[in-house]
Design brief:
The protein has 379 residues and is α/β, with parallel strands linked by helices. The protein has two domains: 13-186 and 294-376, Alpha/Beta hydrolase fold, catalytic domain (Rossmann fold, 3-Layer(aba) Sandwich), CATH 3.40.50.1820; 189-287, Rna Polymerase Sigma Factor, Chain: A, CATH 1.10.1740.110. The protein has helices at 130-144, 157-168, 187-201, 219-233, 236-242, 261-276, 279-291, 302-306, 324-336, 360-376; strands spanning 13-18, 24-25, 31-32, 35-42, 52-56, 94-98, 113-114, 119-120, 149-155, 173-179, 310-316, 341-346. The chain has an eight-stranded mixed β-sheet with strand order 1-4-6-5-9-10-11-12, sandwiched between helices. Helix 3 packs antiparallel against helix 4 (219-233), helix 3 (187-201) runs antiparallel to helix 7 and helix 4 crosses helix 6 (261-276). It is globular.
Length: 379
């Protein structure tokens, strides 16, 4: 522990959870093996193994949710939430975060080597379903010797994973927190992802998904995809407050380069993204979100109705990517299934990205909910 409540240095672990002889059976019926998973843990697992919290990450996240890696310039992506004395207090809870299936930060995905061919999977990697993420999460818990979670928590795509997990395997989760998420993407959301994928696949260096073999990266397409997505993550007020119409300091006269500060910001976000995320993972994971529609399944809430989960659903009033309407739809379905569900719409100026930021009312809400879950335990 450091003086500011950070976890300090942390380590990412990798474990092989499925093999070619004992493969993962996907929701589609296809099989995949071997499957390696990268994960991190923070805090100490209680002797009764009743203080475990699983963090499900968003589209471009990874297992490094908190603390620092040796030589890293920035802490984990949710470091403001996780650590000693923070809302998710690691002096009290044992926190697990894993890079999800299909990812590109240590877990098997489309950029991994296909043992059958000795080549990168590329577009031969099987299409995935939200249920497949959950299957791998559950296998990791079994590896760690954890039968039941005190809390499953996730934002955006992470919240979708929590919802899927709770609906299919409610006996494994006592409390589920779903933040800035959706149970069914609308046409606008699907359209944003479609344009992002098209930018990647139309890049001359995409090479039908085999760009690694050619020693190239579809940089322009991936950068454009990230720039467009990032626009949807912030609210209009956030852009106005941060940038307004401020010109870029290096602009000498109007043209078609980077003339405004906001253009420089988006360009930077796109360039940094290229260095840490794989284009194939972007295609596969975003497509999973498009098809996610759990409440459309027959008897979707039967299991959770028989074995209730205590839910917290949180939205942000300026989030137009997954607006409060998306969260209210989740709440409506859960209430219809007679689930104990609390709902909060949090005022925050930063749009969808608010779930990653230390917004005081948001953190206070989570802290109180975590404290209640800790007091009640697994009962």
């Amino acid at each position: 522990m450091t003086d500011n409540g950070s976890l300090g240095l942390v380590e990412t672990h990798t474990v092989r959870l499925f093999t070619a002889d004992d493969p993962l059976v996907l929701d589609s019926g296809s099989t995949l093996g071997p499957v390696d998973v990268a994960y991190e843990t923070y805090g100490t697992l209680a002797p009764d193994r009743d203080n475990a919290v699983f963090i499900c990450h968003a589209l471009t996240g990874d297992a490094h949710a908190a603390g620092f890696h040796l030589g890293a310039k920035r802490p984990g992506w949710w470091d403001n939430l996780i650590g000693p004395g923070k809302p998710l207090d690691t002096d009290r809870f044992f926190v697990v975060c894993a890079n999800l299936l299909g990812g590109c930060r240590g877990t098997t995905g489309p950029s991994s080597i296909d043992p059958a061919t000795g080549r990168v999977y590329g577009l031969e990697f099987p299409l995935l379903d939200m249920a497949d993420f959950v299957s791998v999460h559950r296998a990791l818990l079994a590896h760690l010797g954890i039968e039941r979670l005190l809390i499953a928590l996730g934002g955006s795509l992470g919240g979708m994973q929590v919802l899927e997990w709770a609906l299919r395997h409610p006996e494994q989760i006592a409390n589920g927190a779903i933040v800035a998420a959706s149970s069914r993407l609308n046409a606008q959301n699907i359209a944003f992802s479609a344009v992002a994928r098209r930018a990647i696949m139309d890049d001359p260096d995409f090479n039908d998904g085999r760009y690694a073999e050619a020693g190239v990266i579809p940089r322009l397409g991936l950068r454009t995809a990230r720039m467009m997505a990032h626009i949807t993550y912030l609210s209009e007020d956030a852009f106005s407050e941060k940038f307004g119409r401020t010109p870029h300091p290096d602009r000498d006269k109007p043209g078609f380069g980077i003339d405004f500060a906001v253009e420089s910001y988006l360009d930077h976000q796109g360039r940094v993204f290229i260095e840490r995320f794989d284009a194939l993972s972007y295609l596969y994971l975003s497509r999973v979100m498009d098809y996610f529609d759990p409440f459309s399944r027959p008897h979707a809430t039967d299991a959770v109705a028989f074995c209730p989960v205590k839910f917290l659903v949180v939205s942000f009033d300026t989030d137009w990517r997954f607006s409060t309407e998306h969260s209210r739809r989740i709440v409506k379905h859960l209430e219809h299934a007679r689930q104990p569900v609390s709902f909060r719409e949090i005022p925050a100026s930063w749009g969808h990205d608010s779930f990653l930021l230390p917004v005081p009312r948001y953190h206070d809400t989570l802290r109180a909910w975590f404290d209640r879950a800790g007091r009640e335990g697994l009962r």
